[in-house]
Design goal:
The protein has 273 residues and is mainly alpha-helical. The chain has one domain (2-266). 79% of the residues lie in helices and 0% in strands. It has helices spanning 2-36, 42-68, 77-85, 88-101, 109-125, 132-149, 151-156, 160-193, 204-230, 239-266. Helix 5 (109-125) crosses helix 6 (132-149).
């Protein structure tokens, strides 16, 4: 019984993590292609579009189970109707449908950009935030997904000239990305704590946020290392440079997976109390 209760508490976080990882691959992959001329993740985007849509459907059932305190809540029509009336059903359905548009990767840049923005908008509307906090969250998601979304496409670059061009272009935007993340993330924290940031040191939520910031800093250092030391020295004949770059990108993937997991927990009902 206690194991079932523990799983019920963990399940919403895992499902949200799956949805957000799917968004990074689909929406982030599209943004990487459009904004930084990186290779398309066509097959992966199709796979994760389906996974993301499935995650939205599963999320609705898991919410019913959590509400009832038992897995039987997944199949109770009355609970489903209650959740739908509470507003999560329509936006989960919209998010699933937008995910499914990713099954077809258009060759037209503005269509891909529109699909990416629509998905992030739907994810923002699924949050329990309101007003200014929701606006800050949308901007934060857009910038964060853009950053995380370039990692896998970078691994597909097989020519030094292409890699240098795309990495240099991304490097120019990196300070802007970090600045916007800091402003929007800081604004969200200030609004949540009502200006008393010392509350962060008095709760699991706050310590988890600080851990997330540590991983974000790690990703930023990896990006700085690539920008300053590795990318400028890449040559077509220099296999070692490619191996080092790809190795760092693989570490980046793990770092972003942890960041998304912590973010899923932070947004799943954990409080400052």
């Amino acid at each position: 019984m206690f194991e079932d209760i523990e799983m019920l508490m963990i399940a919403p976080v895992i499902v949200k993590w799956v949805i957000w990882i799917s968004a990074v691959v689909t929406s982030g992959g599209l943004l990487a292609t459009v904004m930084f001329n990186l290779p398309s993740l066509r097959r992966l985007q199709v796979a994760f579009a389906i996974i993301g849509a499935g995650g939205c459907i599963l999320s609705f059932g898991v919410a019913g189970a959590v509400l009832m305190g038992t897995w039987d809540g997944i199949l109770m029509p009355g609970i489903a109707a209650l959740l739908w009336g509470g507003g999560s059903g329509p936006w989960l359905t919209a998010t699933a449908l937008v995910f499914l548009t990713g099954v077809h990767v258009s060759r037209t840049a503005w269509i891909n950009l529109l699909k990416a923005v629509l998905l992030l908008f739907c994810l923002t509307m699924l949050s329990h935030l309101s007003g200014l906090m929701k606006a800050l969250l949308f901007i934060h998601l857009f910038v964060a997904v853009t950053w995380a979304g370039v990692v896998l496409p970078f691994l597909l670059c097989d020519r030094a000239e292409q890699l240098r061009h795309s990495a240099t272009l991304f490097g120019r935007w990196a300070p802007v990305i970090l600045g916007v993340l800091a402003v929007c993330g800081g604004g969200l924290v200030l609004l949540k704590t009502q200006g008393d940031v010392f509350l962060l040191l008095q709760s699991d939520w706050g310590w988890a946020l600080l851990a997330k910031l540590g991983f974000v800093g790690t990703a930023a250092l990896i990006g700085l290392c690539n920008k300053v030391k590795i990318v400028p020295n890449l040559q077509d004949e220099q296999e070692r440079g490619f191996r080092v770059f790809r190795g760092l990108m693989q570490v980046d993937i793990l770092v972003f997976m942890v960041i998304v997991l912590i973010s899923a927990w932070l947004s799943s009902g954990a409080t400052l109390g």
